[in-house]
Amino acid sequence: MTYTKLRLISITLLIYFSSVDLFSQDVSLGKRYFFSGDYEKAIKELRTNRPTVESLLWLSLTLSANGRSGEALDIFTNVPDWQRFVPLLNRVAEIEYDLGHYDKAKTLFQKALQQKSRFIPAQYNYGKMQYEWGNPAEEKKN
Which domains does the chain have, with CATH numbers? Predict the structure, then answer.
């Protein structure tokens, strides 16, 4: 994952979280380590936090940036009813896309947009996926 993509995702998350009250836990130290590029310290710090939507999103971003996308995907399986949280649906779809699981990613992006059609990160990511891959099933046949 490129720095530019991570930065875009991070900025989008920051804009989203600044308008939501549900994310009360402070994860600023973990974010500081993330932006400084010290992913191991960020992972350690973010794992010490009580699991919230925000801390899980930042942990998954950090794991992916550290080349551990499979582990980033696994953290969501421990969250009951994770699919009811649109930001988590979007993040899992991003990871699936990065891992090359295009059909899973498409389904998850669509599910996120069904729940909250104006969720900009999911709109952007789904649009980008459609632009880059069109119909992934057709791409695999060729």
Answer: 3-17+26-136 (1.25.40.10)
Is 60:72 a contact under the CB 8 Å cutoff?
Answer: yes
Statement: the pTM of the whole predicted model exceeds 0.90: no
Provide the phi-psi class of 134: left if phi over 0, else alpha when psi is between -120 and 50, else beta.
left
> First CA to last CA across the chain, in angstroms?
25
State the 10-residue block means of pLDDT for the chain, 142 residues long: 60 53 65 94 89 86 93 82 85 92 94 92 92 64 38
Amino acid of residue 3: Y
Nearest to 88 by CA among 61, 123, 116, 57: 57
Neighbours of 96 (CB within 10 A): 20
- Looking at residue 33, its pLDDT comes to 93
Place of tokens 């389904």: 107
Listed as own residue / partner, the contacts of 90-93 with beta carbons closer than 8 Å and 24 or more positions apart are: 90/119, 90/121, 90/122, 90/125, 91/56, 91/57, 91/60, 91/61, 93/122, 93/125, 93/126
